[in-house]
Specification:
With 532 residues, the protein is mostly helical. The protein has 2 domains: 285 residues, no CATH class; 107 residues, Alpha-Beta Plaits (2-Layer Sandwich), CATH 3.30.70.20. The protein is 43% helix and 7% strand. The chain is built from 22 helices and 8 strands. The strands form 4 sheets. It has a two-stranded antiparallel ribbon. Helix 2 runs parallel beside helix 6, helix 6 crosses helix 11 and helix 7 runs antiparallel to helix 8. The longest helix has 32 residues. It is elongated and about 105 Å long. It starts with a helix and ends in a 6-residue tail after the last helix.
Length: 532
C-alpha cells in the first residue's frame, strides 16, 4: 500500500513539474508575442499580471482605482484559500526558474546543506509585504521592484532576450564564414521574426541583478521564494485557511527526517505539528521520497492544528514605519518641482503622480516598442521612477501610428489609445540648437528633420536664413524652424539628425499633453507670478 501511495505522489510530483514547464512556456510565448504584430492591435499578452493579487492590491491602494482585468486575481486567492500556495509551486514561472536552478546546483553539489539556526529569515518576505502595503497606502508604489512577474519580465526584456539575440548574431556570422548560407539565412529569418529589441541603457545592471538572485539559490534552495517574494507572503497569509493538509501515519513513520531535509521551502513536514502551512507550495517532494509512504495530503473540511508564521509585532511596526518614512525620502527630487527635460513618457501615460502610482516597472512597453525608443529610466524620473519607461529619441523615436505600449500596460498606467486618437497627444516638443544645425551654422543644405516629420501639416518648416562665410560673404540657405503648436515630440527628427555626436535638434518633455504645469510658457510666468 505504501508503494502505491509513493507512486501516486511521484506522479503528482511529475504533474507539478509538467505544470511548471507548461506555464513557463506560456510565459515565454507571450513574452515573444509582445512585439509589433504587423497590425495596429495586439492581443492580451500581459495576461499573467492580471492573476497577481499583489499587483492588484498595491495599485489599488496607491491609485484608489482598480484595473478591471485585475479581478482575475480573485481566482488566485480563491484557489489559495482552498488548496494553499499551489500558485507558487505549480504556476509561477519565476518559481520554476528558481526550482530548476536549485536542482542544478544540487546535482553539481554546489548548494549548501541545511544547517540549524534559531533565526528564521522566512519572515523577511512578510515584513517586506507590510512595508510595500503601507507605502502603497501612502501613494508610493514600490511593488514593481519586488513583484515576481515584474522582476521576471523586466529581466528577460532588458537582459536575457537581447543577450540571446547577440548569440544568434554570432552564430549567423559563424555560419556565413563557414559558407553555410542556408542555415545562416534561416537563422536571420528566425531572429527577425522574434522582433527583440537589443539596446537598453541598463541592460548590464538588470542582467547582473537577475543573475545575483539566481545565485542566491547556492545559499538556500529557492532562496527568493523562501525569504524575499512578497507575493508568496501574501498568498501564504491566505493559505493558512486552506483545506489541503499534511497527514503523517505515525505507525509507518521511521522518523528519518528526510522529508524536512528535502523540503524546498523549509515548511518542516515533520513533526506534523511544526508543519508551516503558509510556507508549503505543495510540491509533494516529501510524500514522493518518503521511504515508508507515511506522508499524505488529504483534503479536510475541518480545521487542523498547524504551525503558522509567528510575526513579531515589533518587526511589523518597524516595517510599517519604514514604509511610511520611505514616502518623503523617495520624493526628495527636483522632479517634484520642475519636470526633467529627458523624462519623456509614452503617449497615453497618466499625469506623472498618477503614472508613478500605477506603473509596476514590468518592461512590457519597452519590449513592444517597434523602434526600441522606450528605455528604463535611471535618474530621469527621480528615485520613485527608477525603471519606469521613458522615450530616448537618440535610440528610437515614437512611431506616429503605433499605440502598442498603451495596449500592453498591465495596470493602466498608460491609458489605451486608438490609433486615430494618438495624433492629438503631445509627449514633448522639439528644439533646434542653431549652433550645431548645419544650415543655421555653416550654411550648407540639410532638410533631414523636415523630411522625416510625420505631422500634417509638418511641425518642422523651412525658412530662409543668411549665414556669413569665413570669407565674409553671406550665403542664403533654407533652415528648419519648429512650429511648437504642431510638434508632438515624437523624436524622429532627433533620431535622424545627421549630426551624430550631439544632434542639432532634440526633444524635451515640455508641452506634454498630460501635464498642466509642464508648459513652454505658463500664464503665471507671463504675469510675473509664481508657477508653483
Amino acid at each position: 500500500m505504501s508503494r502505491k501511495k509513493s507512486k501516486t505522489y511521484r506522479l503528482l510530483q511529475f504533474t507539478r513539474i509538467t505544470s511548471q514547464l507548461v506555464f513557463f512556456t506560456l510565459f515565454f510565448i507571450l513574452l515573444l508575442q509582445t512585439r509589433f504584430p504587423g497590425k495596429d492591435y495586439i492581443g492580451e499578452v500581459e495576461i499573467f499580471f492580471h492573476f497577481d493579487p499583489l499587483l492588484a492590491l498595491t495599485t489599488y491602494l496607491a491609485s484608489h482605482l482598480i484595473f478591471n482585468l485585475f479581478l482575475l486575481s480573485v481566482i488566485t486567492l480563491i484557489v489559495t484559500l482552498l488548496v494553499g500556495r499551489v500558485f507558487c509551486g505549480w504556476v509561477c514561472p519565476l518559481g520554476a526558474i528558481h526550482q530548476f536552478s536549485s536542482f542544478v546546483f544540487k546535482k553539481l553539489k554546489w548548494l549548501k546543506t541545511k544547517t540549524k539556526s534559531t533565526f528564521s529569515p522566512k519572515l523577511w518576505k512578510y515584513y517586506l509585504l507590510f512595508f510595500l502595503l503601507i507605502s502603497s497606502f501612502l501613494t508610493l508604489d514600490l511593488v514593481g521592484f519586488f513583484d515576481p512577474f515584474s522582476f521576471l519580465y523586466r529581466s528577460f526584456i532588458t537582459g536575457i532576450l537581447p543577450a540571446l539575440t547577440l548569440v544568434f548574431s554570432a552564430l549567423i556570422s559563424l555560419f556565413y564564414q563557414l559558407h553555410l548560407f542556408t542555415i545562416g539565412d534561416s537563422l536571420v529569418q528566425f531572429s527577425e521574426n522574434l522582433g527583440i529589441n537589443t539596446v537598453f541603457l541598463q541592460a548590464l545592471g538588470l542582467s547582473l541583478l537577475f543573475l545575483f538572485v539566481l545565485l542566491l539559490n547556492l545559499k538556500k534552495e529557492r532562496f527568493w521564494c523562501r525569504y524575499v517574494c512578497p507575493l508568496g507572503a501574501l498568498l501564504g497569509l491566505f493559505a493558512r485557511w486552506n483545506r489541503l493538509k499534511i497527514k503523517i501515519d505515525e505507525e509507518k513513520c521511521i522518523k528519518c527526517n528526510l522529508c524536512t531535509f528535502e523540503c524546498e521551502t523549509d515548511a518542516i513536514p515533520y513533526p506534523p505539528e511544526k508543519w508551516t502551512i503558509t510556507e508549503c507550495v505543495y510540491c509533494f517532494t516529501c510524500s514522493a521520497i518518503c521511504p515508508t509512504g507515511a506522508i499524505t495530503f488529504p483534503f479536510k473540511l475541518s480545521p487542523q492544528r498547524t504551525a503558522m508564521v509567528n510575526l513579531s509585532r515589533r518587526q511589523l511596526l518597524v516595517s510599517s514605519l519604514l514604509g511610511a518614512l520611505a514616502v518623503p525620502f523617495f520624493r526628495l527630487s527636483p522632479d517634484r518641482h520642475r519636470a526633467s527635460a529627458k523624462r519623456i513618457r509614452p503617449p497615453g501615460a497618466l499625469p506623472e503622480e498618477k503614472f508613478l502610482r500605477k506603473c509596476v516597472k514590468c518592461g512590457e512597453c519597452l519590449k513592444v516598442c517597434p523602434t526600441n525608443g522606450l528605455q528604463p529610466a535611471l535618474t530621469e524620473a527621480g528615485p520613485e521612477g527608477i525603471w519606469t519607461p521613458i522615450l530616448v529619441p537618440r535610440i528610437g523615436h515614437c512611431e506616429y501610428y503605433c499605440t502598442l505600449c498603451s495596449q500592453v500596460c498591465p495596470t493602466g498606467a498608460i491609458q489605451e489609445l486608438r490609433v486615430e486618437d494618438k495624433a492629438t497627444i503631445k509627449i514633448g516638443t522639439a528644439w533646434i540648437d542653431k549652433n550645431r544645425c548645419i544650415p543655421w551654422k555653416i550654411g550648407e543644405p540639410c532638410i533631414v528633420c523636415e523630411e522625416h516629420c510625420p505631422v500634417s501639416p509638418k511641425a518642422i518648416q523651412l525658412v530662409e536664413t543668411q549665414v556669413r562665410q569665413p570669407d565674409g560673404l553671406l550665403k542664403t540657405q533654407r533652415a528648419p524652424f519648429i512650429n511648437l503648436e504642431q510638434c508632438t515630440g515624437c523624436g524622429i527628427c532627433e533620431n535622424k539628425c545627421p549630426v551624430v555626436d550631439e544632434p542639432a535638434i532634440y526633444v524635451t518633455s515640455v508641452g506634454e499633453t498630460r501635464s498642466e504645469s509642464n508648459r513652454v510658457l505658463l500664464e503665471t510666468l507671463a504675469t510675473g507670478g509664481d508657477p508653483y
